[in-house]
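Ops channel
N.P.: pipeline sanity check, posting one input/output pair.
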């Protein structure tokens, strides 16, 4: 779809959507609020009406949502997850760690550390809405890595989860942490409103 817009128009529209999304704090709103915001973008002369000059009107909403806002959300998540993984790993296990390697599995970074006690820590970056996917990637990494788990040592897991949507309620956060704790996985939550450790 994006090929149908001239490059300069595509860039102008994208820039306008990103600016409006930042002002609206799109990454921190719930679905109902974001749906209303999207409807406003479709009617906006600089955005939806401009796009409709090049593609059919009935496809404008999908273009904005799938072609621009999804990329916006991914970019904001990437900003959150750019924190030093060594600091996150130390926070997750409560001891000093030595970074061994970083790999990417389907766009998620997976970090391997050696802890002070000579056990290992696998830290996976992901999205809070898809925490199960982040957990699966950690397990896939261990299964594919020769020498893991090492003899006489354990491999510990931690998830570094970014929330680019409405912040989780305290009860949701506790439920996820409790479920992961049951299988021995630590979790760190990062939010767009305050990209610190929780």
């Amino acid at each position: 779809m994006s090929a149908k817009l001239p490059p300069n128009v595509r860039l102008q529209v994208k820039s306008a959507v990103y600016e409006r999304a930042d002002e609206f704090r799109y990454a921190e709103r719930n679905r109902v609020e974001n749906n209303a915001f999207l409807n406003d973008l479709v009617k906006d002369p600089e955005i939806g009406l401009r796009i409709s000059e090049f593609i059919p009107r009935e496809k404008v909403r999908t273009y904005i949502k799938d072609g621009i806002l999804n990329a916006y959300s991914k970019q904001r998540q990437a900003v959150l997850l750019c924190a030093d993984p060594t600091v996150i790993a130390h926070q997750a296990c409560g001891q000093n760690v030595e970074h061994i390697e970083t790999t990417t599995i389907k766009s998620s970074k997976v970090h391997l550390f050696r802890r002070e006690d000579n056990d290992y820590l696998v830290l996976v970056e992901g999205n809070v809405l898809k925490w199960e996917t982040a957990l699966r990637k950690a397990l896939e990494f261990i299964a594919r890595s020769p020498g893991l788990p090492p003899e006489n040592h354990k491999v510990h897991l931690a998830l570094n989860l970014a929330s680019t949507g409405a912040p989780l309620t305290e009860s949701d956060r506790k439920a996820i942490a409790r479920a992961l704790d049951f299988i021995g996985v630590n979790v760190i939550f990062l939010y767009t409103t305050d990209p610190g450790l929780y």
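N.P.: looks fine end to end. The beta strands are 97-105, 108-115, 120-127, 155-163, 185-191.
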